[in-house]
Design goal:
CATH architecture of the largest domain: Up-down Bundle
Number of helices: 26
Subcellular location: Cytoplasm
CATH class of the largest domain: Mainly Alpha
EC number: 6.1.1.10
Number of domains: 5
Protein name: Methionine--tRNA ligase, cytoplasmic
Distance between the termini: 37 Å
CATH topology of the largest domain: Glutathione S-transferase Yfyf (Class Pi), Chain A, domain 2
Organism: Phlebotomus papatasi
Structural class: alpha+beta
Strand content: 5-15%
Enzyme class: ligase
Radius of gyration: 31 Å
Length: 771
Amino acid sequence: MIIVTNPGNPYGLALLTAGKFAKKPVKVEQIGNNDAQLKPPKHLPLVRLQSGQEIFGIEASLRYLLGESVEHSLKEQELTEWLLTHFIPILNQLVLSGNRRDASQATKLAGFTKKLDDLLKEGDFLSGNSPSTPDFILWSHLAVEGALKEVSTAENLCKWHKNFSSRSEAQEALSDFKDLNFLSLQNSNRFGALAPSTAPSSSIDESPTADVISAEEIASAREGFTFQDIPQAKEARTVLPKAGERNILITSALPYEICDKYFEIHNSIYRWFGIGFDYFGRTTTPEQTQIVQQMFHELFEAGFVETESVAQLLCQKCQRYLADRFVEGVCPHPGCGYEDARGDQCDSCGKLVNATELIKPRCKLCNTTPVVRDSSQFFINLPKIEPKLREWFASVESGWTHNARVITKSWLREGLRSRCITRDLKWGIPVPKPGFESKVFYVWFDAPIGYVSITSKYTKEWRQWWQPNDDVNVALYQFMAKDNVPFHSVMFPATLLGINKGYTLVSHIMATEYLNYEDGKFSKSRGIGVFGNDAQGQDSSFSWNDLEARNNSELLNNLGNFINRALVFCEKNFGAIIPQMVLQEEDFVLLAQTNREFREYVACMEKAKMRDGIKHILAISRHGNQFMQVTQPWVLLKGTDDQKARAGTVIGLDPRVKMWLKPGHKIGKPEPLFVKIEQGRIEELKKKYAGQQQVASGQAPPKVSEALPKLSLKDLEEAIVKQGEKVRQLKATAEKAIWQPEVEKLLTLKKQLAELTGQPVAPAKDKKKKK
């Protein structure tokens, strides 16, 4: 794992030292505060895992590195937040202020120092019998030049610092970190500690930071703060687009074979996750049949449909023509050779495949070899529509993910070909043309039209979404895996452009990469991986260790702690009733911070940048945690009536950051949102979802490169030329994770050529350095 930090940041030193103490393989990457790789919300330091995922927030990062449990750490957690919000900000200001030091701040630091000194009378460390989160935070800040001088009168604290500094891990970390200073901390840590409001402005670095809250933001928070009842459930209503507003229509690709069983499985999974739809539909409806057939007629009349005789695969044993997904074989594209390519597409090279072109085809149902039979089919004339499609694509591609743009451009670069849109199958929508009554429409002509027909099931006014007036702006967002991109970026738009009846075209395609499981691929057929009806979370690269880290550090320690501590405090001290609130200036600062994070969250979601959006939600909970620690309502409750009332405001305000609760509302029994995932449980889950075939055989699936077919000398030379060109193009446009497998295929082809000719593989030529 990598610790990413700006130079001189004490928190970076704390993370590196903790990593060395925990014997973790950590490296340090130092970057500038405005480095392009630092994605919003900007935060340093952070821990970047091997999977590419990032953990931000000093407390969460330290807990991950140290593997600390949550149950024992309530005292430790309070001490950590006290250091972050009280001790370190004042230490920071006094060291930076030099001769302009504030006497009241120096007195306050002396009191804080005594508290730490007394704490260290009880043991060798601040919390427990070994170094923990607060030890690393305090030590790293006392390592800044001039900091130790501020606490030199504390005998126990200085002894602790000397012992900690003498350890080899601390010395190694210090040798990697030079020029520690508090300016680096102030300029980098957006979610750092809240400075006490009494701090003199002259003692704080005046360079602009993201945490500065403007007077306008505070005024807006003050104006927008109102007491509201909890929103009541409203009767279902039909949502229609409005003129003069930006209207968003969201769809996602679902398989055409949906039957009652899988429809309910999918629906129940969405309900489990709390995902709601205005209407959750399917394509096996009369509306789908009517609209598909109508669109086909309009496309036919516009002159974009033609008839050709094509060869199809017939399984004589099953006595049926095979749908594309029911036939598999070796990919025919040069340089690929993937053994499990399907009859419509190869999952390895991503290219479309005609089923009859597969090498060694086999029926997926009975595993026998099918025979070829000729049949007349309808084709959509994509070359004829291509000029319109290119013009449209150029106008919208900026709203697509990178992989969606790359896949679509590769199709257009090679030139479009007519695509068959009918099949000799029994399942599907009948083709409404004489002589074609026994045929049905191909799934990827039929299925995308389901977005239209499902909307028609939702409302009779569906044309307001799909054929809007000129003064109505409808933005169509579509989410899918990357293998479905061509059908949504080429096939479906080409159909609508060919019809030319003002249909809404997709404006944003959000395509994910293949979902990897640990070091391999998900596979339902092999029982490898976790699926929607198995577990609670997935990512583009699923790892059980990453899940453990995310759950325990970000969800449990950050978000879960924020929600649970306020509600439990309310239950125990206010009879579970949200108290009355009289807000002060610092309260509106918190609300302004929350409003800012929420605005940025919405901006991220508008661009479908969900990970960045989640970071802003986690930032809100961190602001809330720090606010509660600074105000210390548990101390206020022991004071005067005014202080008790202030504690009520703090506790009442804190839940309102999370939920719109009115004073006087009685909450239920608080329960933790998240539980810690122990390493033992992780090992159990790894075994459970490792897959039946691999467990039984003890062998991993063959690499794609090992499945490349043996070609003739001429075919090998042609394949090497094509694969080399593919590698060059990918290296110029894509990330290493995408082009590296293609390089391996190229090397395998060259090895085959060497074996065939008896000549060694030519070494790669060294690039000459420019003088």
